[in-house]
Amino acid sequence: MSSPNEPAEPADDSAAGGLVRVRLELSYDGTDFAGWAAQPGLRTVQGVLQDALGTVLRRPVAVTVAGRTDAGVHASGQVAHLDVAAPTWAAEGDRLAHRLNRLLAADVRVRAARAVPAEFDARFGALWRRYEYLICDGVPDPRLRRHVLSWPRRLDETAMATAASELLGLHDFAAYCKPRDTGTTIRTLQALDVVRGGELIACTVQADAFCHSMVRSLVGALIAVGEGRKQPSWPAAQLPRAERAAASVAPAHGLTLVEVRYPADDELAARIEQTRAMRAAPS
User: Fold this and answer.
1) What is the mean pLDDT of the chain?
2) Would you list which residues are annotated within the binding site?
3) CB neighbours of 194 closer than 8 A, spacing ≥ 6?
4) What residues sit in the active site (predicted)?
5) Domain edges within the chain
6) What is the CATH number assigned to the segment(s) 128-259?
7) How far is it, in rounded angstroms, from Cα 257 to Cα 45?
8) Catalytic residue among 13, 29, 70, 83
9) Is 94 an annotated catalytic residue?
10) Which CATH number fits domain 19-124: 3.60.15.10, 3.30.160.20, 3.40.630.30, 3.30.70.580?
11) Of 225, 108, 214, nearest to 160 (Cα)?
12) pLDDT tens, 11-25?
């Protein structure tokens, strides 16, 4: 079994009494969590989930997640995987989600738990992740205050949408990522849509993967455009920068991971190999 922060290798379920790879589908309100990743002394989604799994399965368990959300970020469509001993899965599989939800606090739910092919990898097998960021630039609904950013000034969603369209495609997004010593910042931004419905603006962001704080940094740049502080051409003009752009990072609570998509079972191994290959810089 890999450590909590490392991708697990494919389960070996070929032998009797081997392992079964299990896919978990999760939702959580990130308000009271210090993010996904387990951290000593802090309440995290991974920490409470692994504690519950350890109680139900009677052994320490490490899970690998599709997207390691930051503190305060929510999820309605998070995906994770773990390996379970085949006899344990045979005994507990049908009721695993129910038993976990009885142990977990109300701000995190396991929506489903099912066996998947040994090649399934929640992190490296994903085709894309989709996030939604919600902004209210009118009178906010107090019932939504934990999930929607309340903005005090009217935003120009048309200008925001124009700016968003210029960011699409394969780029080095170092200007929109929190610096880290390892890992590439090259990503393919597949969608960045800005749609208004009354006083609510939804920014939907989809990419093959995201680097640290990328979505919130992109939204922060779009808000600057929506307020008129920056021209619609400004966000794309920052892409050549090797360091983070000067736009503010949008607060965490407006952001939700809504969906992660995977290929067909017979394409999982090829997708993992493709994802793990080093990304080439765009020409």
Assistant:
1) 91
2) 131
3) 157, 160, 161, 164, 201, 202, 203, 222
4) 70 (nucleophile)
5) 19-124, 128-259
6) 3.30.70.660
7) 14
8) 70
9) no
10) 3.30.70.580
11) 225
12) 544 444 699 999 999
